[in-house]
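quick one before i forget lol
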Amino acid sequence: MKILALDSSGMVASVALLTEEQLIGEYTINYKKTHSQTLLPMLNEVKQMTELDLAEIDAIAVAAGPGSFTGLRIGSATAKGLGLALNKPLISVPTLEGLAYQFWGSKDWICPIMDARRNQVYTGVYRFVETEEQGEVSFSMETLMPQSSMDVQELINWLNEHVEGKVVFLGDGVPVYHKQIADGLHKPYSLAPAHRNRQSAAALGMLAVEYFKQGKVETAAEHEPDYLRVSQAERERMEREGK
């Protein structure tokens, strides 16, 4: 099984090619260029460096949201275009699940937070459950809080009430809301290190492998990003109209 994974849901753009057994190549950049400038050149670079024949891939994984409205549209349009051209299925992976999957095997609570502005965050809470069969240990990701849009203080209150043990925070919302977390959270916590605190197409792709096995695929025509809430422009329009 060979998966091409794309993530442009946040400030990071990331492309990866992988199989169930290994990561073949990944190109990730977190810089001030727009995803419209970076994603396709990055994809082409991965294709050339790995001598990839796109016809050989089994599916295209894409971060389905939430996240940056523009970034999600760019990623979805790219994935849909490839899927239609190659007649390949798409695997829509929730952005926050993809972020959390970087901590596969951790026994801590994993809480990715993305800055949604106006003191709001996109977030979810996950943990990995260990199972053993014939001496082989494996982990499955369990969702305690599905991905949501909420006020950061509401998230802190929820964590104080519902979790026991350490919480690991990651995502672009951490530097924005770290002080509020430090002041309000009554649980031990840590911040993810730099190499695991932003989106990774490799992690997204590995989770997509699990989705693929479960039959969670869709056609390119069916795929739509999950914004979770309306865009700022739409909110401003609704405010002008008194809605």
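fyi The CA atoms of residues 22 and 212 lie 16 Å apart.
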